[in-house]
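Shape is hard to put into words, and the shape of a protein is harder than most. The fold becomes a row of whole numbers, each drawn from a learned catalogue of backbone shapes. The outcome of that step, for a single protein, is printed below.
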Amino acid sequence: MLKNLVSYLCFLFLGFVPLISFSAGFRIHLENASDLGNAFAGGAALIDDASINASNAAGLSFLHQHQWVVSADGVLSNTSFEGIASAPNLIFPPDFFAQTKVNSGSNGIIPALYFAYPIYAQWDIGLSINEPFGLGLNFGENSDVRYTLIKASQLGVDIGPSIAYRVNEHLSLGIGPNFQHYSVQSALKVNTYLPDFFTDSRTEADADGWNSGYHLGTMYVFFC
């Protein structure tokens, strides 16, 4: 019975994996190039270089060296929609209706910059500048889904200075503020088409702004 219960729980967990995988939306998990090969597994505990500041500033104490890290990751992605696209005509029937399949490509470069510097025996400072959100969709001005979305894009730039204090040989604490600028743009069409009189209308949205927060972390290393 225990074996059946374990099998059932494993099956139930796998059923939720796709929901977890897609919940991040446009989150870009490309903080550096050094951990790209292991898919950033254990990123908050791996002290490879100054990019540890992005996930756990306390790691700067165990790096304890002057270092600059610059990376640029290329992203080539493709998104497709297959189904029914429809939109009521706001001026005069008939409404728009189409069984369709459309594709959107989203390509870009994701840069990042990190800095670490030991200032005293037990104190280190660091800086991270990266893009936690970005990319977008572009289905085209005349695609069948133009009444839902023509294009959408977003860009987030995060600036995170940090200071770390090494309490003892094994324990370190890190803290610092975050300043993030976020911008988003989108466009779609409204079905107002009437032959010889009206064409489709177009609506656009554009917003951006700054906000701030903080990060803190701790790290305990059993073997130094």
Summary: The chain is about 10% helix and 50% strand. Residues 2-220 form a domain with the Porin fold (CATH 2.40.160.60). The first strand starts at residue 67 and ends at 87.
